Amino acid sequence: MRLRRFLISDPIRRQIITGRRAETAAKLRIGVVREPVPSRNRLTKQWAAFPGSSAVERQTLNLVVVGSIPTLGAQEPTTVTDRSYNRDMPDRPLSALVVATASGAPMRSERPKPIHLLCGKPMLSYVLEALGGVNVGNTVVVTGPRGDWVSKRVMEDPPGFPVRFVEQRGNRGTADAALVGLTGFDDFEDEGDLLVVPADIPLIDTEMLATLLFQHRRHDAALTLLSAVVDDPVGKDRVLRDERGNVSGVAADSDLVGDEFSVNEISLGVICVRRGLLAPAARRTAPAFADGRHRLADVAAILAETGHPVVSAVIDSDAASMHPVNNRRQLADAEAELRRRTNERWLDRGVTMVDPQRTYIDSTVQLGIDITLFPGTILQGNTVIGDGCEIGPDTRIDRCVVGRDTVVEKTTALGARIGDQCNVGPFAVIEPGAELADGTVTGPFYVAGSGD
């Protein structure tokens, strides 16, 4: 009953009511309007409710919208850099749900897809890092097969906010995953906002999430989806709008009909939704004909049809960077983009790279200032390089600490410590556990073990 009162009382308080104004308005306020809303063709498929879907929740969402919902106006691409995006807007608790249910099958791997590494970190960690930038509270990660692998790997370097892991038993789709994820929250704050993000978009950043949250609270929306306008939308989910320009739903490419093929606004799979609305709407999603799974994207159409305001936040950045990582080729493409961003960040912080395209730095590496990196340099793991060092060419350093003003040339060093003002190489091998004292000069073909 709690969800029923919330859903009925909130959605259409500003709508224009035509015809029997007083009688219809009274019905909407007390929630006795029972006639179903005519659905789009893709939502008139036979509805298979999730177990536990109640008659009250089904009736709650079957509201008649009399008149029209006010047009929100044309949405211009929005970029938000001011982190105080909730100022003078509805101030509701913010939590997050990350869908990380994919197995390793798309990658031809035993390792679950969310923990495949990019620049030294699992791709799921990049999503959690972006969420931390918008100050989310509690976060739930929904895992699939081998969920213990996912939780153990991510918590080796935990984010700076509470994270709980729950497992989806059986892949019934992203809508079911969202329902499973909601069970991971201790509180029952229906008024709060919930960011729902897939784990396989490691290139998402805090600015994109801030844009989404800004638009969601600016319009006081029930659901806001992150979208982009692209030249070639083939194969992508399309954002559909009604004749007034309001978002009416999201359609998979295989479900498009007529003029919908010409739509070039695509959904990027990230939404911000009122937490109290998600469960009953997700339970109303119909299984897809292709695989029988319930799509979270269908929640947008369900909420729009029942009178709740649904909007989109259009980003003006490169939408190609937001494509899900579904195979090894896309993993390599995402890593190349992350390395480019990493190199640019260090260049801006005072590191010289003779050839940035041939310099490889994990996102976990820490560098000082006035460092010169020559072509073929590979820095991995939690490596720390002190100020004034010269590294390379053709050098790999993994999980090492290198002191100030040290030169390392054509060397492989793993899990070692190299002191200040050393000269290492060429063709040196520094084995795990080795420690080189300050001022060490190794000469060529030097090998240092843990006992040295």
Describe the protein's architecture and organization.
With 452 residues, this protein is α/β, with parallel strands linked by helices. Helix content is 23%, strand content 23%. The protein folds into two domains: 2-322, Spore Coat Polysaccharide Biosynthesis Protein SpsA, Chain A (Alpha-Beta Complex); 349-448, Hexapeptide repeat proteins (UDP N-Acetylglucosamine Acyltransferase, domain 1). The chain has helices at 2-9, 21-30, 55-61, 123-132, 147-154, 174-182, 206-218, 275-283, 298-305, 328-348, and strands spanning 94-100, 117-118, 121-122, 139-143, 163-167, 193-198, 223-229, 238-241, 247-251, 265-274, 310-314, 351-353, 359-361, 366-367, 371-373, 377-380, 384-385, 390-391, 396-398, 401-402, 407-408, 411-414, 417-418, 423-424, 428-430, 435-436, 441-443, 447-448. The chain has a seven-stranded mixed β-sheet with strand order 5-4-1-6-10-7-11, with helices on both faces. Strands 12-15-18-21-24-27 form a six-stranded parallel β-sheet. A hairpin with a 5-residue loop joins strand 8 (238-241) and strand 9 (247-251). Helix 1 (2-9) runs parallel beside helix 3 (55-61), helix 6 packs across helix 8 (275-283) and helix 8 (275-283) crosses helix 9. The radius of gyration is 26 Å and the shape is elongated. 42% of the residues are buried. Mean pLDDT is 82; it is low at 1-87.
